[in-house]
Design goal:
By secondary structure, the chain is an all-beta fold. Helix content is 2%, strand content 51%. It has 2 domains: 12-337, Glycosyl hydrolase domain, family 43 (Tachylectin-2, Chain A, 5 Propeller); 344-482, Sandwich (Jelly Rolls), CATH 2.60.120. A hairpin with a 2-residue loop joins β19 (285-292) and β20 (295-301). It binds beta-D-fructofuranose.
Length: 486
């Protein structure tokens, strides 16, 4: 069959002379570029991929299209870190030059096998704008960080009967001496599912079937499955496409949920105890977790779908979330900013105690900062971030309703307004703690030690800023600058 062709299906190796340098220069001084969130130097970033703690380093790969702020030929970009705070950029890890990946090296996860890191990914092949096929592939990174494609790729050719060409995003893990691969899939009847393969050696795979997940959510495609155990409990994460808003949940174009339950690989079932939306913000999708030193860490894409951002004009888009540590609380996951972020703690802006009343914390031109608020007694609280005469991003806690609302309708640049400009969550416990981490164009808001998290992209005007706080409570607060990490 002939392959689909469009200018955006071009690898980085096909750049014209000076083209990449020009892209890099164009976005270099963009004031909305984060200083410690992983972001592309130029082009578009989406999902985190292949996350690993391997041979004394953290490795983060991500989906990357080099030529602009839109989705095109996807590569795997690569950064690494010794401390999960300061990152170095590396050469492109996977460039889709082979026939089996002619329209992109799509998402996947990694697994250490003996002394090498296996990077599983999906080779995407398009025949026309709609028709596609998917091959599951492998690239291997050795101890020296050299990456090669497996010579017998693809590991899994095409898709099993009963599914469309939308089968992707391998998550591989070992259990009881066998390897398993979960894949996001679309059934021929246009509904979403997770399918399972098994292998004795992480190279030769056989199709087991579909994972039964008894959940009243369907959608037309389930992307980016992830499975892990925290503290004796199984968790499944996936990103279903095509589900409707429901109360405070699922207001973004695409959404991500986590399920607490029990995985039974003999019966191919995931028994569901509870499920919840993972992040309550505007910009969060396709997260992936990994294990490092006994801790379960997670990165998400701080973005979703095909949005228009003010950074598009400089030909770059999106960043990852911060690394979060997942802690189990019953059937819930708490998401805490990784401890490594303490390494980026910079000069104090201010700290103090606030009696019921209000304060204006001057941030001036400081664009990377972290603020924590702790209240002994619950009370109403209102924060205005990036505040000036011209705009503000509001966070309100309504003590009676136990509800937190984030609102970006008063920002000068409002993105994705068609999906609403507020996100809210009703807490199970009174607000006692808020941790806000801001990096130029992203704010991550952690409530009560990660019981609820809002990931929000914001594009503040370039002008002096302050944070306005008003509360009925006694509050302790601390604000400090954050240092550069990438
Ligand atoms: C999720 C996703 C994945 C796919 C990748 C392509 O955002 O659509 O399912 O592998 O992005 O970039």
């Amino acid at each position: 069959m002939t392959r689909y062709s469009e200018p955006k299906y071009r690898t980085i190796l096909e750049a014209e002379k000076g083209e990449l340098e020009a892209l890099k220069a164009q976005s270099a001084n963009d004031e909305w570029k984060p200083s410690f969130h992983i972001h592309p130097q130029y082009g578009l970033l989406n999902d985190p991929n292949g996350l690993a703690w391997f041979k004394g380093k953290y490795h983060v790969f991500y989906q990357w299209y080099p030529y602009g702020a839109y989705h095109g030929m996807k590569h795997w970009a690569h950064v690494s870190s010794e401390d999960l705070a300061h990152f170095d950029r590396h050469d492109t890890a996977i460039t889709p030059v082979e026939d089996y990946e002619s329209h992109g090296a799509y998402s996947g996860a990694s697994l250490q096998v003996r002394d090498e890191l296996y990077l599983y990914y999906t080779g995407n092949v398009k025949y026309d704008a709609e028709a596609r096929d998917a091959h599951q592939c492998l690239a291997i990174m050795n101890e020296n960080g050299e990456i090669r494609k497996y010579e017998h790729n693809p590991l899994i050719k095409s898709v099993p009967a009963g599914y469309t060409g939308h089968v992707r995003d391998p998550k591989v893990f070992e259990k009881d001496g066998q390897y398993y691969m979960l894949l996001g899939a679309q059934r021929e009847n246009q509904t979403g599912a997770i399918i399972v393969y098994q292998s004795p050696d992480a190279l030769n795979w056989s199709f087991l079937g579909e994972l039964s997940v008894e959940i009243d959510l369907e959608g037309y495609m389930w992307e980016c499955p992830d499975y892990f155990e925290v503290d004796g409990k199984d968790f499944l994460i996936f990103s279903p496409q095509g589900i409707e808003p429901d109360g405070e949940n699922y207001h973004n174009v695409f959404n991500t949920i986590y399920v607490a339950g029990t995985l039974n690989l003999n019966e191919l079932s995931f028994t569901v105890d509870e499920y919840h939306e993972l992040d309550k913000g505007f910009d969060f999708y396709a997260p992936q977790s990994f294990d490092a030193d006994g801790k379960r860490l997670l990165y998400g894409w701080a973005g979703v779908g095909e949005v228009k951002f003010p950074t598009d004009q400089n030909n770059w888009a999106h960043c990852l979330t911060l690394p979060r540590e997942l802690v189990r609380k019953g059937n819930r996951l708490l998401q805490r900013p990784a401890e490594s972020l303490e390494l980026l703690k910079g000069a104090p802006v201010t700290e103090g105690e606030l009696s019921p009343g209000s304060a204006n914390i001057k941030l001036g031109s400081v664009k990377a900062w972290r603020a924590t608020f702790a209240a002994e007694q619950a009370a109403d609280l209102k924060l205005e971030l990036f505040s000036s005469e011209n705009e503000r991003f509001t966070i309100i806690y309504d003590h009676k309703a136990k509800k937190v609302v984030t609102d970006r309708s008063d920002m000068a640049h409002v993105t994705e307004a068609q999906y609403g400009t507020k996100r809210e969550v009703t807490l199970t416990e009174e607000l006692s703690h808020m941790d806000i981490i801001v990096d130029h164009s992203i704010a991550e808001v952690f409530i009560n030690g990660g019981a609820a998290v809002f990931t929000c992209r914001v594009f503040p005007l370039s002008e002096d800023k302050q944070m306005n706080v008003s509360t009925d409570a006694e509050l302790n607060y601390e604000v400090h600058q954050m240092k550069r990490g990438i």
